[in-house]
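hey all, quick one before standup. I had two proteins in the batch that finished overnight and I want to keep them in one place so we stop losing track of which output belongs to which input. First protein below, input sequence then structure tokens straight from the run.
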Amino acid sequence: MKPLIQKKIVYLINNFIYTCQQSIGAVLDALPAKRVNTARKINGDLFERFIRLIISKAGVDVSDGNIAVPVKINGEVAFNFNYQHDLIIKVDDETKAIGSVKTSSKDRLDKIFIDKFLFNRLTDTATPHFAIFLNDVQRKGKEGKYGVGATFLPGHFKGYTIKLNSLDGVYYFDIRPNMKTEAILKDHIKTFDHFLLSDVWKFIE
């Protein structure tokens, strides 16, 4: 593929999806103040469905739901408990990768790393875990003097990556500048086009 054509495809993938989702968010933002929490929940749910639809249309078997995790005692399965996931990628009913889809990493980053650690420890597997985020910014200030504040916690991300376990992919539509230049971050965080055009196919090989 010619570099110019590839660049245009990448631009279209990231910016078209981002614009669509932000348009949904803008409409929900117009709801009365008393419905702010409801609007945020709806926005997050629609983003998850949007990403699942995109992955499915690319030809990948993807769903959301629960995975029954067996807990063994003395080598025997004593009981199962359900683990809920936003994205479950399968090939012939075999789980190949598990993903989280969030509009931002705020208050969610820790759980994604811990989910991978616990799931793989409990199942004795090395199932890839990845995360897809819309952006990591939010409004700050007061009306008439609004600004933009970052919600990403680089220290948490680096700490979990080095000392717990690294995720098998972290993807943004609106990637922060420090994610392109800062050590560790630049090696583990990419834009969404990398997932759709390359990494997801590696997961299902």
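OK second protein, same deal, sequence then tokens:
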Amino acid sequence: MDDKQIMISRREALVGSGKVAAGAALLSYGAASLFTPAMAMAKETVKFPWGYTKIDPAEAGAIAYNNWFKHFCCYAVVSGILEPLQREIGDPYASLPLIAFKWGHGGAVGWGTLCGSLNGAGIATGFIGGHEGEKILNDVIAWYTETDLPIYKPKSPKAQIKNVNTSDSPLCHISVGKWMKKEGVAFFSPQRKERCARVSADVAMKTVMLLNDWKDGKYKETHGSNVKEHGLTTQLNCMECHGDDVPEPKR
């Protein structure tokens, strides 16, 4: 290679490296521009849990009832509690896409496990209170299993229902199944949908009531854990479905 070719090659290398540097700078700027000011602020300053300001239980219930007919029980309760906080507190709540929690419907994408309304309460109390939120959720679950539901009566119901029932379980398929048998309706009936929308409103309202007490410093945990007494995480209605096949844990 002669001296002229060497000079040209060096010049091309310099130009090329300049393009790479400029491209890297542009890419860096472009990536940074993808983050909104709210997201940047949240990343730098927001601490977990996100906190709480008192909201109206009646508003939470109305939002949950209406939103059940959009994306079902989990989303209904999450939005019933967090939509008011998006308005009252703003970010980071305002930047949270609540539709992301639709998965909790029907006991998690229709698997009939933990009632989606309770999934929603857990998501909301987790963001709000972290470990303290778990205590509130524990009490909400206990209340759900022991209470004749639904209680909530919307101003403009989508359907009329006759019955309430005590589930004695936090599981979707048991809670819904018992009520359906009592009401004499099928799963896809307007009455069953109405029932679940009202139960979502009840759960949202109960959760907000406990959160308001927590904010006022008046909340006292009422339901503990079954682990110490029974040797594993459990509920106490196993015999109803499983008979003698309930597994015995080692002590």
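Flagging for whoever picks this up: Confidence is low (pLDDT under 50) at residues 20-29. The chain is about 60% helix and 0% strand.
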